Predict the structure.
Amino acid sequence: MSILFKNAQLLTEEGELTKRDVLVENGIVKQISEEIADGAGDVIDCNGKLLSHGFIDLHVHLREPGGEAKETIATGTLAAAKGGFTTVASMPNTKPPIDTKEKMINLQKRIKETAKVRVLPYAAITLGQSGSELTDFDALKEEGAFAFTDDGVGVQSAGMMFQAMKKAAEKGYSIVAHCEDNTLINGGSFHDGVFAKNHGISGIPSVCESVQIARDVLLAEASGCHYHVCHISSKESVRAVRDAKKAGIRVTCEVTPHHLLLCDEDIPELNPNFKMNPPLRGREDKKALIEGLLDGTIDFIATDHAPHTMEEKSLEVDKAPFGIVGLETAFPLLYTYFVERGIFTLKQLVDWLTVKPARAFNLDMGELKEGISADLTLIDLQEEKRIDASTFASKGKNTPFNGWLAKGWPVLTMVDGKIVWKRGE
Ligand SMILES: NC(=O)N[C@@H](CC(=O)O)C(=O)O
Ligand SMILES: [Zn+2]
Ligand SMILES: [Zn+2]
């Protein structure tokens, strides 16, 4: 079984685009050269489109088990494939949360049966994500847990977090944190900034996140564990991570496309599609996130794809759940609003979606070169269209970007040498 990609554009180490042919054989990238003659297998004429290593999203919510009305492994991973992602890491805040070996075994079975792309399942740090008792890390790891997180809630007690980190450090596991101090949420749905003020509502202050990051980097230092911060959103948080990295602490962090693209001034009205956790912060915060990516404080981009049903998102804003979808719009939005505007280079953007997340977690993937598993995505950088949530493969249509014009749409996604999604099919 072989597939030959003809006339593709590949990014070089220096960030230049060069024309190459790429031969995939038995699931492996067999050869990359200027010209490869047609053989017995299929030929795909890329016609100058960008061929990249498949994108890696280490923060998605697939909602199975228990949340199938919002998303399933099948629909979420099809959405991933449509967005050019070949690997996603799924969050364990399902119903019930993935906190025991048995639940992990069942989840792995469902992944095997229904996933369209690679899925790396996270397990919970604490039983029921309740913050009071650690899960059995070793047993969960044995069943393929990717790392440990209570995403959806912060681990409230420093003592519990320290225990988790010490245990993780012993075995070389990663602790991944949603940072949110429950005593500082303030009953808010939006950031404690201009939007909340204009609407006379209470907001979630930045310290709600940053105090927990500051606490955790010190715990990471004392325990020696690899500590990763989810969806970093405020300028103080970026500073805390920057200082920690300078001090030699093993901390990494991710930022979402929506926190890079939007701030609270962009929220048009009390609209649940602009409600997510952490909230869209101020203009200065958005600027700090972009700077943090550019100076290496922020390691990579992850979508925090968080689908909810139309019914849930039609509730009044304070009753609607937090979260927005992101898999099918991440690349075109970032390409259009950052690369085309000269803020990021194409190489930087692709690295933040491929090799950078892989490196942060020591995954042996992320670079397009001979010998790798053929996880590839083909992108039409010229195609421009309006985002239309009704066409999403995801069950979740909850996006603040509906109607936005964006360029750079994936047209084909391959995992392990198999085409898992192709435009028009
Ligand atoms: N990001 C969100 O707003 N929501 C996530 C939870 C989370 O990522 O914290 C969800 O599970 O819906
Ligand atoms: Zn979270
Ligand atoms: Zn999340």
